[in-house]
């Protein structure tokens, strides 16, 4: 049970002077229940790959397999129900006059009663930290971060088993970032939704992801745990990426104290190691 | 993003490097000439001019053919309507109350040719001229009208902004459609009313973003002290080269011949 891409290739604007090969024989697997991060510099094909998982783009070659079922043009509705996709700046897709109606938009095609619809909307809003008082408000009068959470709820309400997000925290302030990531993490830990997420923040990836896919120029460079990926500082820098800031600090510390363990990439992990090293007494 | 009809295709051919003012004038003259032509020899000759221009543009002829593709329905419709309703003298066929005359068929074929050549010619202009060059050329061509207080610069500026935003909005529309699709929307099913209603979730965010972009653009222009056309200088000044009088002379001579012979 997983979300799989097998030998996917995709070219934009085929047979024109603007032809651009975005994906070149890409094979990845997003294991069920994981929090998979996808990193790579701008234009490396991340967003193109995400669109394939949701049936918005059909690969020129290769196939997408969702829970052992191959995606094709016939089962695209089932696939979209299973795999929710949240675009970059999803708040720009809001259009209804109340939050309730906007979040419920995806449910309009489902044959469910009004009460059930309302329940699901309230539940979805709760998972992104918004209470019932927002139901009748206009999405356009909310703040940027809240708008984004409403848009997120509009996808969560469909109860996807896989949730794919393209830079969900782009353009938010640090508090907004942390909030949105904590809601997404909760979806994984409490509801068992598999998360696949694109982000340019290595710190966020270090804090939340348990599986990392590194892409460059339309190919997958590596797929591994964050520990193993962030150990390859040189490779990441060659790809226009970086290691989390704390890893750099840690390297400097290790020069002074070689007895410290290597591969620390979260602030929390670093704090614990330092505490241990100092005998666990300091505050 | 799909390549739009008439989208600029960068190149370095004779036609690409010809001054936009000349190209605009040539296109206008060409179109006017097509309207005068009324014989098959004339159409063949102007078709040959078009083929020569395509060769001079070094573009694949497929683009030019593609540019007339959306018009097939319109052309077929005019052919059918003309065949049925354009009278004549020589009766060729008759079914029930429908009479088909020789003149009607000839007339509708000419109409179809006229539309095809017109559109192909016009799209060749936009294929080989960037929108900046196009509006720049238009502004210069219209500038004599400023004597009678015609706002040539403002109109050119509005045009170039409008042209610039077409790909942006088509990208944005695709993005919003994708977003709504991935939360369960379907745009290609149901009856007409259902389909039109289905567009609301795309149109509203699109309008909202149009206003947002307009505001951003206005602030950006103000921040750079844009105050209209007066006293504005250019980084790239349009200059005539040897190509331009040559191109102009060739096309004018050809078209004069066409008109004279086909009248």
Report the helical percentage of chain B: 55-70%
| Order of helix and strand elements from N to C terminus of chain A | EEEHEEHEHHHEHEHEEHHHH
Structural class of chain A: alpha/beta
The CATH class of chain A: Alpha Beta
- SS elements, strand count of chain B: 2
Order of helices and strands of chain B: HHHHHEEHHHHHH
Low-confidence stretches of chain A: none
Low-confidence stretches of chain B: none
Helix content of chain A: 25-40%
**Strands across the major sheet of chain A, in which order?**
6-7-8-3-9-10
What is the CA-based Rg of chain B, rounded?
A: 23 Å
Features:
heterodimer, A: 283 residues, alpha/beta, Rossmann fold, six-stranded mixed β-sheet, four-stranded antiparallel β-sheet, 11 helices, B: 263 residues, mainly alpha, 2 domains, two-stranded antiparallel sheet, 2 strands, 69% helix, flat
Structure description:
The complex is a heterodimer of chains A (283) and B (263). With 283 residues, chain A is of the alpha/beta class. Chain A has helices at residues 46-53, 76-82, 99-104, 114-127, 144-156, 174-191, 202-208, 226-231, 233-238, 245-256, 267-277, and strands spanning 2-12, 20-31, 35-39, 61-66, 69-70, 83-86, 162-166, 194-198, 211-216, 219-224. The model of chain A has no long low-confidence stretch (mean pLDDT 89). Chain A is 38% helix and 22% strand. In chain A, the strands form two sheets. In chain A, strands 6-7-8-3-9-10 form a six-stranded mixed beta sheet, sandwiched between helices. Chain A has one domain: P-loop containing nucleotide triphosphate hydrolases (Rossmann fold). Chain B is mainly alpha-helical. Chain B folds into two domains: 1-129 and 235-263, no CATH class; 151-232, no CATH class. In chain B, 69% of the residues lie in helices and 3% in strands. Chain B has helices spanning 14-17, 20-36, 40-57, 61-68, 72-85, 102-128, 131-142, 152-182, 192-198, 200-223, 243-262, and strands at 91-95, 98-101. In chain B, strands 1-2 form a two-stranded antiparallel sheet. Chains A and B meet through α2 of A and α8 and α10 of B.
């Amino acid at each position: 049970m997983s979300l799989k891409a097998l030998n996917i290739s995709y070219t934009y604007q085929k047979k024109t002077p603007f032809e651009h090969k975005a994906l070149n024989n890409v094979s990845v697997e997003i294991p069920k229940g994981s929090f998979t991060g996808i990193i790579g510099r701008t234009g490396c094909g991340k967003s193109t790959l995400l669109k394939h998982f949701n049936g918005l783009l059909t690969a020129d070659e290769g196939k997408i397999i969702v829970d052992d079922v191959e995606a094709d043009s016939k089962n695209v509705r089932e696939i979209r129900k299973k795999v929710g996709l949240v675009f970059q700046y999803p708040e720009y897709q809001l259009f209804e006059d109340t939050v309730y109606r906007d979040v419920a938009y995806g449910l309009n095609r489902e044959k469910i009663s009004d009460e059930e619809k309302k329940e699901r909307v309230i539940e979805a809003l709760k998972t992104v930290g918004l209470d019932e008082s927002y139901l009748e408000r206009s999405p356009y009068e909310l703040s940027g971060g809240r708008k984004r959470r409403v848009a997120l709820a509009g996808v969560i309400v469909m109860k996807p088993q896989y949730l794919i997000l393209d830079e969900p925290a782009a353009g938010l302030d640090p508090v907004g970032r942390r909030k949105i990531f904590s809601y997404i993490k909760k979806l994984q830990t409490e509801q068992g939704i598999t998360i696949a997420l694109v982000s340019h923040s290595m710190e966020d990836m270090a804090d939340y992801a348990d599986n990392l896919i590194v892409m460059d120029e339309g190919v997958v460079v590596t797929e591994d745990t964050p520990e193993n990926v962030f150990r390859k500082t040189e490779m990441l820098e060659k790809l226009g990426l970086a290691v989390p800031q704390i890893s750099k600090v840690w390297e400097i510390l290790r020069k002074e104290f070689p007895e410290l363990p290597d591969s620390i990439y979260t602030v929390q992990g670093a704090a614990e190691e330092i505490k241990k090293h100092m005998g666990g007494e300091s505050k | 993003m799909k390549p739009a009809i008439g989208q600029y295709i960068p190149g370095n051919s004779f036609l690409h490097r010809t001054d936009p003012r000349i190209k605009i004038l040539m296109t206008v003259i060409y179109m006017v000439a097509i309207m005068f032509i009324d014989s098959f020899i004339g159409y063949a000759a102007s078709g040959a001019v078009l083929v020569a221009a395509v060769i001079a543009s070094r573009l694949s002829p497929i683009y030019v053919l593609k540019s007339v593709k959306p018009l097939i329905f319109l052309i077929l419709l005019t052919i059918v309507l003309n065949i049925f309703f354009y009278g004549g003298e020589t009766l060729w066929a008759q079914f029930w109350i429908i009479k088909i005359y020789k003149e009607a068929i000839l007339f509708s074929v000419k109409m179809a040719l006229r539309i095809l050549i017109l559109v192909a010619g016009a799209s060749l202009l936009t294929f080989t001229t960037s929108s900046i060059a196009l509006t720049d050329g238009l502004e210069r061509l219209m500038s004599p009208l400023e004597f009678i207080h015609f706002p040539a610069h403002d109109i050119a500026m509005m045009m170039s902004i409008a042209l610039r935003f077409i790909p942006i909005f088509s990208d944005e529309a695709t993005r919003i459609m994708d977003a709504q699709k991935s939360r369960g929307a379907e745009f290609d099913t149901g009856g007409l009313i259902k389909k039109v209603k289905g567009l609301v979730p795309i149109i509203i965010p699109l309008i909202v973003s149009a206003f947002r972009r307009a505001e951003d653009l206005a602030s950006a222009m103000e921040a750079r002290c844009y105050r209209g056309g007066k006293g504005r200088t250019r980084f790239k000044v349009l200059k005539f080269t040897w190509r331009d009088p040559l191109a102009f002379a060739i096309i004018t001579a050809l078209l004069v011949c066409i008109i004279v012979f086909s009248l």
